[in-house]
Design goal:
The protein is α+β, with helices and mostly antiparallel strands and about 100 residues long. The protein has one domain. The protein is built from three helices and five strands, in the order E-E-E-H-H-H-E-E. It is globular.
Amino acid sequence: MRINSRVEFHPETKQVLIDGGEYTIHVGRLTSTGECLDRVLQVNRKDWADGEVIKGVLDALEAACDWRFGDTAQGVFCPWGQHMQVHWHRRTRALQPEEA
């Protein structure tokens, strides 16, 4: 599924491809709020990541969450600011235990 001219989401592999696969995000490995934020911020720091790429990545995460969970990325990863543990294979999510 093409998100924009530089980003696409492939549900069958749970991958977001940037620039035809030059950079790949495997959304199935984003299993927590922190991992999702980390990946977005990591892409943002790349020299080649312009506004189109960042918006494309965010839109791809929205598409992935809607496809797998029927919810928004915010609803999956951080509803009401809560830290979540996300299980893509089981299609479940739960509050992430707080660290001491």
